[in-house]
From TrEMBL:
InterPro entries: MoaB/Mog-like_dom_sf, MoaB/Mog_dom, MoeA-like, MoeA_C_domain_IV, MoeA_C_domain_IV_sf, MoeA_linker/N, MoeA_linker/N_sf. This is Molybdopterin molybdenumtransferase. Residues 1-158 are annotated as: Disordered. Pfam families: MoCF_biosynth, MoeA_C, MoeA_N. Residues 330-467 form the MoaB/Mog domain. Pathway: Cofactor biosynthesis; molybdopterin biosynthesis. Keywords: Magnesium, Metal-binding, Molybdenum, Molybdenum cofactor biosynthesis, Transferase. Its EC number is 2.10.1.1. Its cofactor is Mg(2+). Residues 1-13, 23-33, 70-93, 114-125 have a biased composition (Basic and acidic residues). Residues 34-43 have a biased composition (Low complexity).
Amino acid sequence: MTGSDGPHREPGSDFRPAGPASDRAREEEERAVEQALALVGGSDRTGGPGGRPSRSQDTQGLQGPQAPRDPQDHQGPRGHQGSRDPHDPRDENPNPGPSNAPHTRRSGDSAPYNDRDNAPHDDRTTAANASAPGSGQPPHPGRPSPGGTAKPTPTPPSWERARAIAARAGRGGPTATIRLPLDRALGHVLAEALGALTDLPSFDTSAMDGWAVAGPGPWAFETGAGLLAGRGAAAALADGTAVPIATGARVPPDTTAVIRSEHAHVDVARGLLHARRSVVTGQDIRPRGQECRSGEQLVPAGTVVTPAVLGLAAAAGYDALPVVPRPRVDVLVLGDELLNAGLPHDGLIRDALGPMLGPWLRALGAEVSGPRRLGDDAGDLHSALTSSDADLIVTTGGTAAGPVDHVHPVLDALGAELLVDGVAVRPGHPMLLARLAPDGPYLVGLPGNPLAAVSGLLTLAEPLLAGLAGRPAQDPYRALVHAEVHGHPHDTRLVPVVHRPGRAGGRDHVAPLRYNGPAMLRGIAAADGLAVVPPGGVRSGTEVEILDLPWAPATPWTEGCFT
C-alpha cells in the first residue's frame, strides 16, 4: 500500500516495486523478504518446500473481505469489546504458530455457494486489501502479496446459509442416549418416543366426590366413609343402591354413574338418595384407558422434558427417561483489557460476555463450565483448546486479524476445519465455526463486541446446540415490524425488537429498539426477540423473521408472542 511518503519497507529489506528487473532477481528478493519475516514471526510463511502453506494459497476458499462497514459496526483492533478504527485492515496475526503446523482445512460446506446465497453480496477484493510491505502482517487470503496479484475471494456465506451449516453440523453425528431419573431429566431432550407403560387411568375411577349409584333411583344407602382413593376393589353394587365415593377412588363393578354431592339430595330419615338432575349412564366416571392405552405413544422423540412431561411420564409408569446428554460447553474469554470487577479505568473495560454467556448457553440446553479468562496469549489458547473435553468451545474476541487476535492462527496450528469463516450479517460478521478434529469438539468464535457476540450465539451456537441436543428444527416465526428499519446494503441485520399487542383489533407487531450498536447491550436487555432484516432494510408493515430469545416465553411482557 502506498501513501504520501512512498512505499512502506520491511525492516532490513530493500523492497522495490516491480519494475524492469528480471524475474529471477525479483523472486530472490521476495524470498529474502519472506525469510526475514519468518525469522521475526517464528514461522515460514513462504509455502515453499518444507514451509507452512500460506493462507493465501488455501484452495478451499477462505472467507475474504466483508461488505462495507456500518458506521457503528467496527470491531476492536483485537476483535473484542470496544470500538475499532474503520480503516484498520483485518490482517492476520504475524505469529500463528510453529512452521510445520498444518493449515486450517476448509469445509466443503463453506464454498462454493450458489447464486442465491451470494445474491445480496459482491466481491470487493482490491489491491487495498493487501498487507502493506513493512506492516509486519502476512497477506490476507485473496489479498495480493508484495509483487503478486490478488486471488478472487469468495464472499462470506449468507446469514441463512451459515445457520443451515451450523444446524447440519449439530445433526451430523450419532445421537447418544442416557437414562436419567425423573428428578434430573428436566430440560433434556427425549432420545426416544415415550410409550405408555400402562392404561391411563389403569382402572375405572370417580371423577368427582359424590355417590356411586347402580340402576334407576331413588337409591338406598348406608351411612359410612364410603369408597376412598387408594383402596382396593369394592364389592359390586346392586341395582337401586348407592355408596359414597371420593375423587380418584375405584368405581365398584356394575356402577351406572357417579352423582356429584351438590347434585344429590339425601333423605336421612328414609335412607334414600335422590338426584336433583337427570342421571346419564357413565357420567363423572373416568373409564380405564380414557387417556391412553398401554403402548400408545405419549410424546415423540425430540421433545424437551418440561415439568408437564415429567408428570405425564410418572403417571404412565416411568421412573427414568431416555434422553440426549446435554452438550458440554467451555467458555473462553480472551482479552488483556477485561476487568472482572469494579469500574472501567486506565483503558480497561468490564467483561460483559463472561457473565452473560453461561446463563444464555444453559437456556439453550447446554451444560456450561465456568468461564475461563485467558487474556491475549496464543499459547494459553492453544493449551485450552487441546485440553478441553467439551462438545463445544465458545471463545469471545480474537476472531478478527489484529495484532493479538490469535483464534485463526491457533486453529491453523491445530489443523482445524473451518465450516464458517465470517458471515454476511451485521453486527457480528467476523464470527466463525470450526471443528478441531473429525471426532473433536466444535468451536464457535464470537466477536468481542457484546451485541455482535449475541448475533454469533443466535446465528451459529443456537442451531449447532439444538442439533447436538437432539432438538428438532423449529419453523421460522414471522411478525409485522412497526417501523421502517434501515438495512445494510449487502448483509443481513439482526435488530433487537419488543412485542407490541395490536390496538382496536389490529395485528400484533414488533417494534425495533434503540441502542442496537455492536458494542451495546441496552437494546437486547429490553428485547424479547431479534428481527432478521434483509439487505436494504424493510418498510413499516413488512413481515420479518423473528429470532426468539431463550427466556422470552417466560417473561410477562411478551404476552405469548414468541412462544
